[in-house]
Amino acid sequence: MKRFRPGVVPTVVVALLLPLLVSLGFWQLSRGAEKSALLQNYAERRAAEPMASTELQHTQDPAFRRVRLQGEFDAAHSLLLDNRQRDGKVGVELLQPFRDHATGLWLLINRGWLPWPDRRTPPQFTTPTEALNLDAWVYVSPGATFQLHADPDSNTWPQLVTAVEPARLWSALSREGFAYELRAETGAATYQADWPVVAMGPEKNIAYAVQWFAMAIALFGLYLYLGWHNAKEKHHGSGHESTQHV
């Protein structure tokens, strides 16, 4: 009966790598499930009727909820969120403070995406000066907390940023404001107002999980093959030596 002889080094490598590959596969499956739940939650809340702005601050879980606003934009303190792409084109998203008349609360409204093909000239946009009625929805990032990579105390506006933390902006402007970004629904005051909820859909996570599991199976299969192959060579070598001694 053949003995299994994989060797010490292959055994150590497999003992280290196999649990890692399997855990990465299950982690990707978990991330895919989380994103599926997020998208389902997003779809349900986006289908609901907009809430009044007076309810917004009292909502414990505001993510992706629609809200109806009436107020005006502050054109003097615009933020340009850099490194945003649409259809392979580079650009920025325009975010501006919006004062809601019903509550007096300041909200940071994302008015949508603007192309920025030539970095030598600033992006061109206009801001409505009259009071507006608009619907928006609360965006809460599923990833890391936003950090404001700009100096909100600067007198140079609009400011080019790579990420946004509304609460810090309100503090710098000495205003009472809502802690999350709101994304305006397509209308007269918006530019290209289409955003993915997550950068990578759950199907990508499932595909990555399959890859990790496939690598784990391949590694374990190679380990088994190496063990039996070494045992076979050892057996043949022992038989050859016995023949020479006869």
What count of helical segments does DSSP give? 4
- Please summarize the sheet with the most strands: 5 strands, mixed, barrel
What sequence of helices (H) and strands (E) makes up the elements?
HEHEEEEEEHEH
The whole-number mean of residue pLDDT values reads 85
What is the rounded distance between the termini? 23 Å
Describe this structure in words.
This protein has 2 domains: 8-37 and 203-245; 49-184, no CATH class. The protein is of the alpha/beta class. It is built from 4 helices and 8 strands, in the order H-E-H-E-E-E-E-E-E-H-E-H.
What are the main properties of this structure?
246 residues; alpha/beta; 4 helices; five-stranded mixed β-barrel; 39% helix
Summarize the structure.
With 246 residues, the protein is α/β, with parallel strands linked by helices.
Q: What is the element layout, followed by pairings?
A:
Blueprint (H helix, E strand, L loop, with lengths): L7 H40 L3 E2 H4 L9 E8 L5 E8 L2 E12 L5 E10 L16 E8 L19 E3 L4 H8 L3 E8 L17 H44 L1
Parallel strand pairs: 1-2, 3-7, 5-8
Antiparallel strand pairs: 2-4, 2-6, 3-4, 4-5, 6-8
